[in-house]
Specification:
about 40% helix, globular, alpha/beta, Rossmann fold, 6 strands, about 260 residues, six-stranded mixed beta sheet
Length: about 260
């Protein structure tokens, strides 16, 4: 007999456009080595456009029938992700869907260490030895001093999946987080390898407030898996007339 341990549905959402995204674009436009933004990364807010995107996403989730809406909302504690999750939660609550956002520090952005706030040009100019090491190792395994590799992010996300299977089996779960986190979840859930996930990454950035969705599918009478339904889905924004953006965060300009 099948013992179910996965959520019935899982959505992975990247936060709305942030002030860091805007600052990163400005730095690249002028060929700057550094990205200028004063707040520490955990406190970088949504841009005005990011707020529109988050509200549009919230209305899309709230338009679903009660039996299809998220029951659990988990979020990175970083402000841009939390405010995106809050917008969805507010929209659901306005439709009599009770719930709160549960922050989880394991869902935080990848830490970039000494390369934080540098453009690719800035890294090559200020830390040529690290640029060469990254080129040799590849970004999946390269860990900048005081920072994280993709593998480090994957290690903490393994325990997030354990928590979900323990506490939220057969629930409809929404996770609001960051670009690399969405990709690393795909690596884990779909049991991909390094080449496969980097190929997906190379196809294009994860759009702000895009939806990656999994549904529970029976594999056989004794097993079930989460099956990818859609990736980088931006129709909720397009239907609301909110522009789609996909720039990497300020701190991961050279991810």
């Amino acid at each position: 007999m099948l013992v179910q341990r996965w959520p019935a549905r899982l959505w992975l959402v990247r936060h709305g456009e942030s002030a860091g995204n805007v600052a990163r674009d400005a730095a690249h436009a002028i060929g700057s080595e550094a990205i200028t933004i004063e707040a520490r990364d955990v406190d970088v807010p949504l841009s005005s456009l990011g707020k529109r995107q988050a509200e549009a996403l919230g209305r899309w989730f709230a338009s679903m029938p009660d039996v299809e809406r998220p029951e659990v909302i988990l979020s990175s504690p970083y402000l841009r992700a939390r405010r995106t999750a809050d917008a969805v939660c507010a929209a659901l609550n306005s439709r009599s869907q009770a719930g709160v956002v549960v922050p989880d520090e394991r869902l935080r952005e990848r830490e970039f260490g000494v390369l934080d706030r540098l453009t690719r040009f800035g890294i090559e100019q200020r830390h040529p030895e690290l640029a060469a090491a990254r080129q040799l190792m590849g970004k999946f395994y390269f860990r900048p001093p005081a920072g994280e590799s993709w593998c480090d992010v994957i290690l903490r996300l393994r325990s997030v999946l354990d928590t979900i299977s323990l506490h939220y089996s057969d629930k409809r779960v929404l996770i609001v987080s960051h670009q690399v986190v969405v990709l690393c979840f795909r690596y884990l859930i779909e049991q991909l390898d390094e080449a496969s996930i980097l190929a997906i990454d190379a196809e294009g950035d994860v759009a702000n407030c895009s939806v990656t969705e999994y549904v529970l599918a029976r594999k056989n009478e004794d097993d079930a898996v989460l099956k990818l339904q859609r990736y980088n889905f931006v129709t909720p924004l397009e239907e609301e007339g909110a522009p789609v953006t996909s720039a990497p965060d300020a701190k991961v300009a050279a991810r």
